[in-house]
Write a structure and sequence with these properties.
- By secondary structure, this protein is mainly alpha-helical.
- It contains eight helices and two strands.
- It has a two-stranded antiparallel sheet.
- Helix 1 packs antiparallel against helix 2, helix 1 packs across helix 3 and helix 5 runs antiparallel to helix 6.
- About 40% of the residues are buried.
């Protein structure tokens, strides 16, 4: 993948915004907090091409993997990636790619598909790490987050539309 300087700057900004939005966190009972990470993944996916959306989220993962405190709660390092929420972090680049790739059909549908991918990977990883069965894992890691994800998707679509209008004026 060859990126132009403008694209690299946009990807770096997106990764930094993802790190910033990750710090907006509400701890819930259980292991998985409510954050605005997925909101930012939706915005990135809806504004970038598929490879760029993947790259921005991948850069974010790399930043956290080397120890920068970019994950929720100012966490970072490999320990965050192998914890209960690591699967969701690993799912972000894939989620962004899926949304960005399928957004031309239907933006809301693409976001729901990406959310399903994130939940499938993240919950599967959670089950592996926690040794918990499917239904308790879904009750802990998916069901409580669905209403919030619906709100995030609606807001992200509106934000992405504004970003697209602004960037088209300056391109």
């Amino acid at each position: 993948m060859n990126f132009k300087v403008k694209e690299m700057c946009q990807l770096a900004l997106a990764a930094c915004l993802l790190a910033l939005f990750s710090q907006i966190k509400i701890d819930l009972p259980g292991y998985v907090p409510l954050t605005l990470q997925t909101f930012m993944v939706y915005v990135i996916a809806l504004t970038f091409k598929p490879n760029n959306a993947f790259a921005a989220c991948f850069v974010y993962l790399c930043m956290g993997a080397i120890g920068l405190p970019v994950f929720a709660g100012f966490n970072g390092g490999i320990s965050s990636l192998v914890s209960y929420t690591g699967g969701y972090l690993f799912a972000f680049p894939i989620m962004a790619y899926v949304i960005s790739y399928s957004k031309h059909i239907n933006r809301y549908g693409a976001c729901f598909l990406g959310t399903f991918v994130c939940y499938a990977i993240g919950t599967g990883y959670f089950m592996l790490v926690s040794q918990m069965a499917l239904m308790p894992s879904l009750m802990m890691c998916v069901i409580p987050f669905l209403p919030g994800d619906l709100v995030k998707i609606i807001l992200a679509k509106k934000v992405a539309e504004k970003i697209k209008i602004r960037t088209e004026n300056y391109a």
